[in-house]
Structure formats: structure tokens, C-alpha cells
Amino acid sequence: MSPPLLGIEGHSQCNVSLMASSASADCISQNLSGLKEHNYFGLSDCSSVDSSAVSSVVDENKKNLNLKATELRLGLPGSQSPDRDSEFALLSSGKLDEKQLFPLVPSKDGICLLSQKTVVSGNKRGFSDTVDGFSQPKSSIFSDGNWMFNAAGSESGQPKLGGNAGINVMLTNRSSGAQPSIKAEVPAKAPQEANDKMNGSNTNSVPASKAQVVGWPPIRSFRKNTLATTSKNNDEVDGKPGPGALFVKVSMDGAPYLRKVDLRTYSTYKELSSALEKMFSCFTLGQCGPQGASSREVMSETKLRDLLHGSEYVLTYEDKDGDWMLVGDVPWE
Amino acid sequence: MAYSFPEEVLEHVFSFLCSDKDRNAVSLVCKSWYEIERWCRRRIFIGNCYSVTPDIVIRRFPKVRAMEMKGKPHFADFNLVPEGWGAYVYPWISAMSVAYPWLEEIKLKRMVVTDECLELISKSFKSFKVLVLSSCEGFTTDGLASIAANCRNLRELDLKESEVEDLSGHWLSHFPDHCTSLVSLNMSCLGSEVSFSALERLVGRCPNLKTLRLNRAVPLEKLPNLLSRAPQLVELGTGTYSSEFRVDIFSNLSEAFSVCKQLKGLSGLWDAIPAYLPAMYSVCPGLTSLNLSYATIQSPDLSKLVSQCPNLQRLWVLDYIEDSGLEALATSCKDLQELRVFPSDPFGAEPNVSLTEQGLVTVSEGCPKLQSVLYFCRQMSNAALVTIAKNRPNMIRFRLCIIEPQAPDYVTLEPLDTGFGAIVKSCKELRRLSLSGLLTDQVFEYIGTHAKKLEMLSIAFAGDSDLGLHHVLSGCESLRKLEIRDCPFGDKALLANAAKLETMRSLWMSSCSVSYGACKLLGQKMPRLNVEVIDERGPPESRPESCPVEKLYIYRTVAGRRIDMPDFIWTMDEDSALQHS
């Protein structure tokens, strides 16, 4: 009994046959070759619609992703992957539009559609928005001013290389001529964070409730709930930071090393800035004068305060749109 | 026939066949063997409650004494199956209450069980002995009270990780005073405190009690009371293992443990405090199974503990054990067969413990019998996986969860295809595999080519194209269960391998790229499959045919389409075109 062969409408590339596993090798190889031709790297047969969609979005995102092009990209599904733009998944072009319409995870702020979604960029196009939901809430958090701090790299001038995600916070001396700002970088995307983690840099975590992909990591509810209660108890006992600790790296212009602060231990900007003051006081002391005699230390406190509060230093950060923002405008929460 | 054995002789011979596979084979020999076998089959296992109806089962096997059944897809454990999906056991209980009055055992997994079911069970089956509800839900402690009160010969009551609405601990007091038959009691998933004196008396009057798993509410200082009444225990799950340290509690506990000379398995240990750990050292040398996955103790104490358990065969632990603890494990526990390491902080972005791929490598080197692994970690490399594969060709179950989706080899930043490829090439008896990390279609080619004994495969955030799925469906000859989430697999591979789906128990695909049109086609052309589209966005007919469905569950069945579906599930079959017009 020969199995029926059926073509599928809408797939321009090859006919897919419905067949029993005992079907002839011919059919199988025909389909396989159909599959192979179109699936592996460097698909060329896709419609022009796909390519144009890709290039437009790639351009649009290039300005945000410049430096990512020089790195190995390990983005999350749904992310732009410049290396892979030329690869197209075996999808009909008709699917392009539909994909945008279905956020599969209720997105937090209605920010569910990045322009990148229109792209049939190779491998990850099939991913659901649950994974985009993984990355997007982070974007929304950025826009709310919940900045994250990250390693700036060594120089203030080149903070963006090396796959840094998050914000670089630096105290810069106004007198140095550069804009007195804490340079901060906020990447538009979570994939970079994934990148950074691979590189061993210390990216910040987004508050857990906002960043979870549904059902991932795969842990049973019973275990999750038990852990939650257990860790709550332990936090009180051990005093070690719970899963909510939000450590960020802060760098000061000209300082020989960076510091780390836990944003969660502060409840206002004032607390944060005074803590940062104290942390970086040693550097300012050094800058005050060459001698470093003990008598200076008495005065240094006031001088430091003047330096930090008054004229010399301000706290700023750069948000995801690439704008320098003064710390303090957005409510702390 | 040239000769014929008397039926009784054949029946006697068949009674030695325990496995379903053997019995099924025997049934196919000839009609008379089929008849004889079906009248003497006492145990049935139904892997998917929707693959068959109660009537069909009862008609074929009229004398069943023990039934085991599974309901929801495995991914229901991770909240991927919406509430109200199904797996109601009531129709089965109802039918069996009439057909199998001598039923003794019911074991259910991932099914919805109501108090009504439990009451019906307790009243319908006079010799009822064993009730195991694993990851079930839908019932309250009132249902448990019916079981306790009415099942006169109850031997086993096991509520493994079920979600029970805990109205009160009073249910335990419903065990009548004359109930002395308990062999196994697992109430670890319950929240409420039971009457301790009732528990004490129950334990005291059941001389055959071998397994006792308490819930967290049982205080540590009361544990010795129970242990002293049940020194014959083989498996113990403690209650909370935490209390303000007092020497008298400690010495009572030590003494109580030392009396339990048969103890082989230990679990519970919620909130364990290091100071109380030495109290159990006396039982450690005899332990073959240790579940520390709820114990938040740190590496040094964990290392010390496992070093005392040279006969350990199974260890479940949190990642607090760290690489150093796993090294101690590898040194001390040469009989280890199964290791599960769970994450203590799965949602934190930064590692909170020093547990890396090295821990697993070390155990794979040091434990020659290691065959079953579940490992959550934050970094992995191809080199590590290749080493593990080389060390442990006897691996049967390998489930690796790298917490960050699509994490590459952290050293080379390449995909982990090579590593997993090494696993399937080397471990020829591999039956279960869960993948994670950055993976391309290549890994699926390896799997399809080499994993010939693979029965269950779990895939998440992996692959590049339909070719990946095609490799698996066309290559994995023993595949029974395939579950996929968030992968770019679409129509082509599925349709090209439609016949394969009839050889499997089930296929789950969520957040992939299978179009509604393809689902309809599959459903229409494969009458022995139920192709169920789960879509909470509304009827798939309201969207274009090329639109991908949210979730898809396909399973083979002789029961026809489901009749108990909620409004977000649609079965694709010949009539579906008519249904939705």
C-alpha cells in the first residue's frame, strides 16, 4: 500500500511529502536534498523579501551593535546575529509577519516587538517570544533607569569593546576636560549579557521575577517553592546576600582599580553617592597632592566631600539609547 | 493444533512473565495464547492515559489487580502545560470500581485526582493495598482521610511531590487503631502538622513499616520518638532537620539513629543544620541512597558527610556541594550509580557557588558505575563532555542543564555539538538524554546517527533548522518520547517523518515553528495519532494557516479524539475542517 504523497502549499522551496517510513529511498533523498539545500549555512534560494528585511534591520541595528560584530555572538533566540544574517531558516516568507504578532509570554510593558523580529535571520527565528520575553524585560528595566554597572574595561575611552554589557559607571574628573560623567553603557539586549558571562565579566542580574523564561531552568514547582522558603530562612541566618543582590562595578576615571557595590543595600541615591564617595576617597586623596602626609588626612574628608558633591565629580550613566543621563532623575525603585 | 497444553499449564508458565513487553509478545503468538494471557494479566501499565479508553482496557484484561498510569506530558512539571489540560483519572476509577472489585494497586503520575476519586477508591476496592500519587494534583487532605479510614489493608500510601490542598493534618488520625498493615508512608509533600501522637501510635503499631517519609512540619526533637518505634525502617525521610542546638536533642537523635540498623535510604533533611549532622553518622556506612536536595548545608559539611557513606549508590544534592565536595564524593563513593545536582539559586545571574563542569568530570572519573546523571551548572565545555563520555561509556541517563539558555563552550565559545556528540557516540546504551547550551543541527546529526537506544530526548533552545528534527526522527530507532521547546523546527521534518510518530508514545513541541496547516494535515492523514494544538490565543482557525501554533502534543492512540478537552485545545482530524467552519 503506497502512502499518499502530499505537497504543502506555501513552502516555496521544496515539496514536502507525507510518507511512511518504508517509503522509497528516492522520496527520502529528494526531500533530504531539498532540506539540505536550503538549510545549511548560506541559503541562497530564499525570496528577496527575506533578504531585504534582513538588511534593513541589520542596518538599523548596526549602530547599536557595531562592536558586537567583532565578537563571537552567542545571542539568545530571537536576537540579531550579524554572523548569521546570511543564513536563513527553512521558513516561508509568509511567516515573517505572523511571528511578530504572537508574544507568547505576557510582556511586561507592552514592549514585545523589537524590530529584529521581522528578520528571518537564520537559526533563531523560530524562537518564541518567551525567550524574547527573557531579554525584553531587561530592556524595559533599562528604560526605567534601573541601570546596571559593568566593567568598563581599562580605559574610559574604550568601554564598549570586549563584549561588555550593562552600564559602565565611572567617576570622571571634570577638570580633565571630558564631560564629567559616569560613563555607562546599556546594551539593548540580553544576548550580550550572555556573552559577557561567557567572557567571565560580571554582568548584573536583573531581578529574577522579571527575567525568567517560562519553565526554565527546568525545575519542578515543588522544589522551587521549597528552595524559596529555605533560602529566605537562610538569608536571615547566614547574612549572605540573597538571590536579589545586585552587584555592579563602578569605575572612577584614573583609578587603578574598580570597585563593586550592591545596589540593593541602598535605598536612595544619596546613600549610593555617599557610599561611592567613601569608596573612592582613597583615589581622590592621592590626587590631592603628591606628598600624602598624615596631616593632609584630616583635611581630606572635607576636601573629598567638596570634590564629590560640589564641583569635581558627578554621577552619570549612559542608558540604552546612548544618552548620558544624570543620576538621580528617575525614582530609585 | 498438533498438541495443546492445558490452559492452566500455560497460565502457570505465563505467571512468571512480569514485564509487559514479554506479555505483549506472548499475546501475539496465536489466538489461544492471546486469550489465555489476557485472562491472567494482573498488572497493566498505561504510559499515556489518552492512548486508550477504560472500556478497551477492561474488555481485554478482565482480571487486573494493579494498574499504573501516566497523564500529563513531562513538561507539565515546568509549567508549560496550561491549567485544565486534562488527565482526569475519575473516568478510570469509576469504570474500574465496577470491573475490578479486587483491584489492589493504583499508581498514577501527573494526573488529576479528586477527593471524589479517593473516596471511590477507598470504598470500591476491598483489598486495596497500594496508592502512589506522583506529581498529581486536585485532591485535598479530606481525600486522604477517606483512604486512611476505609482501606483496611492499606500497605502503601505515597504522595511523592503531589500538590495537595492541605486543609489540616487531621487526616492521619483517620487511620483506625486496628490498622497495622502499613509498609510505606510518604507524606513529605504536605504542609500541615499532623497529630504527632497519632503518628507515633500509627508507626508503633505497624511492625512492617519499612518506609517513612515525614513532612517538614515534624520537628527534629520528636524524630527519635518515631525512630525508636520503628527501628526496622529501611527508608527514612526526616522532617525539618533544624532546631536550636541542644546537647540532649543531639544525643537522643544519635541514639535513635544508631538503633536503625537497616536504614539504607535517607531523605528530607530540610533546613539541615551542620551541628546535627554527626547524629546520623552511625547510619552513613549503610546508606545506599541519600537525598540532600533540600538541605542547605555548605560544601565542607557536605564533603564530610558523603565521605562517611562508602556504599552510596544514589546521591541527590544541591550545588552547595561544589566541585570540592564532588571530589570527595568521587574519592569515597565507588559504588555511585546516580548523581543529581540541583541549583540552589537557579534564577540568580551570577554563580553563587563554585560548581563547574569539573565536578562532574571528577565524578565521572572516580565512580566507575556512574550511569545516571542530572546536573545543573552554569558552564560547560566540549572538552569536559568528551572526557565524561570517554570515562563513562556505561552512561544510561544523561541530563545536563546549563542554566543560561544557549550557553556555548565557555572556553572556546563554540557550540557544544562535539561534546554531546561524544556522549552519544560513546554511551551506546544511552536511554535518556536532555540537552542544553548552544547547539546547532550538527548535534542532532550525531544523535540520529549514534543514539540507537535512546528512548527519551529533551531539547530546549537548540538547533538551526528542520534538519535537526529530521535527524532525530529518522535516526533514533528506539525513540519513544520527544519533547522540544523553543527550537526552530517547523513543518517539513514533522511531515516527512509522520509515520515515525506512530512508533512513539508522544511528541511535545512548544514555541517552535510548526504551522497550523501542517498540524491539520498531519491530523487528517494520521488517524491513529491525536494531533492536539494547544493555543491560548484563541482558535487557530482565526489565524492564517501558516501561523505557528503555540504548543503541539501528538500521541498515538486507539481511543480516538479526546472528549474532555478544555477550550484551548483543538484536535486535528478529518472532521476538524467541519468542526471549525
What topology, given as strand order, has the largest sheet of chain A?
1-2-3
Helix content of chain A: 25-40%
Largest interface, C-beta closer than 8 angstroms, per-chain residues: A-B, 81 and 83 residues
Structural class of chain A: mainly alpha
Taking pLDDT < 50 over at least 5 consecutive residues as the criterion, the unreliable ranges of chain A are: 1-69, 71-75, 78-210, 236-244, 285-308
Largest sheet of chain B: 21 strands, mixed
Q: How many helix segments of chain A?
A: 9
pLDDT average of chain A, as an integer? 48
Quick recap:
Chain A has 333 residues and is mainly alpha-helical. Helices cover 37% and strands 6% of the residues of chain A.
Name the features:
heterodimer; A: 333 residues; three-stranded mixed sheet; two-stranded antiparallel ribbon; 9 helices; 5 strands; elongated; disordered N terminus; B: 581 residues; alpha/beta; 17% strand
What do these coordinates show?
The complex is a heterodimer of chains A (333) and B (581). With 333 residues, chain A is mainly alpha-helical. In chain A, the strands form two sheets. Chain A has a three-stranded mixed β-sheet with strand order 1-2-3, with helices on one face. A two-stranded antiparallel sheet of chain A has the order 4-5. Chain A starts with 24 loop residues before the first helix and ends in a 7-residue tail after the last strand. Chain A has helices spanning 25-39, 48-65, 95-100, 129-143, 190-199, 208-211, 221-238, 269-288, 294-311; strands spanning 169-171, 247-252, 259-262, 316-318, 324-326. Mean pLDDT of chain A is 48; it is low at 1-69, 71-75, 78-210, 236-244 and 285-308. In chain A, helix 8 (269-288) packs across helix 9 (294-311). The longest helix of chain A is centred in the last third of the chain and has 20 residues, at 269-288. In chain B, helix 12 (322-332) runs parallel beside helix 13 (357-366) and helix 14 (382-391) runs parallel beside helix 15. Chain B is an alpha/beta fold. In chain B, strand 18, helix 17 (466-475) and strand 19 (481-485) form a beta-alpha-beta unit. Chain B contains 20 helices and 23 strands. Chain B has a 21-stranded mixed β-sheet. Chain B has a two-stranded parallel ribbon with strand order 5-7. Helix content of chain B is 31%, strand content 17%. Classes of the chains: A mainly alpha (333), B alpha/beta (581). Chain B: This is F-box domain-containing protein. Chain B: InterPro entries: COI1_F-box, F-box_dom, Leu-rich_rpt_Cys-con_subtyp, LRR_dom_sf, Transp_inhibit. Chain B: It comes from Penstemon davidsonii.
